[in-house]
Each structure stands twice: as structure tokens, then as C-alpha cells.
Amino acid sequence: MVALVSHHDDVHVGVLGTMAFDNPKSIKRDTIFRIASLTKLITAVAAMILVEECKIRLDDSIEPWLPALANRRVLKSITSNLDDTVPALVAVTLRDLLTYRMGFGSIMAMPDTYPIQSSEPPFESGGGGLVSTIDDYFVFCRMMLNKGRYVNEQILSSATVELMTSDQLTPEHREDCEIFFDTHSSWGLGFAADIGRKEI
User: If you average pLDDT over residues 111-131, what whole number do you get?
Assistant: First the structure.
């Protein structure tokens, strides 16, 4: 395990354990780890760089980039069996992907509540699969905390960072998802958003 805690320029890193149960080699600060769902934050930043470069818009259909999603069918209702479908009324947008409203079975409910939760994803996810060291991921996080700036380079505009970390869901989107959101959280664009704050 590698842990990093930072407050301004005061950074502490702790390292503990071995590479695997059958590998006695010690974990080090520069050990490369699979970062699993933390990948989605990097994917979201990459997508928003394309938005800032005017190569894609948040509310445009993603079908030109993901043609497998053209002419898709959707469940009649959340409780429908997987073969009980109708043609989709609207195209999936980048905003839908970044707010996890794309309807690919990412249902925030107890396991086995709905039939769609048992389906296999139709393609690889942008929400998992990257690897990183603790220091490289820290650089990424610090860039976001610095409103999109890394050293002397502005990677994302501060307005984009603010948008990404602000609540992008309506109360209707969060309805029946208390197990995941409770009453204090929501989704920004790729990032979780705290909606329980009462003051700045």
C-alpha cells in the first residue's frame, strides 16, 4: 500500500507491504498500481480538453465517435427484462457520459435489484484500466486543485474545472439513488460533487 497526504507543499508518503502474496519484493513509492475507477477522472479531463479545443461539445451526440451507439434500443422501464426494449428517443451526449446518465447498466442500486445490472458492458469503459504511481496521480490531483494549472501551464481553464466539480444532476436524476448519493453528493462532469455544503 502507498498512501499520500498533502497540505499545500507539505507532502507525506507512507509505503507498506509487498508486491503480491507470492512476491516478497517490497512496495516502493514509485511502484506502479492499477488505479481502477480513478481512471474516470483522467478520462473526463481528456474529454474536457477536447471540449475546450472545440473538437466536441458537451451536448452533441457521441455517435460519430462511438457508432456502436447509433440506433440503440433502451429498456421500456428500469424493471424491464433485457429483451423488453424500445428505440431510444435521444442520442447519448458527452454530458450524459460524464454525469453517468448514459444508461449502460450503471445503476446505483443494491446488486440484483434490476435485470440490467446483470448485463455485460457493450464495450470497454473509460472508467477503469489506467496505471500510475502515487506521485504521478498526485500531480494530476494537484492540477485539478490548482484550477487546471500545472506549474506554468494551464491544462484546463478554471471555468471548466469549476463546471466539472459542480453539481450537474437534477433531483430527479438522484431519485431512488440514496444508497449511492445519500443527501449530500451528486455528479459533476466526471467528478463527484458535494451538494451538502451550506456555506462557501
Answer: 79
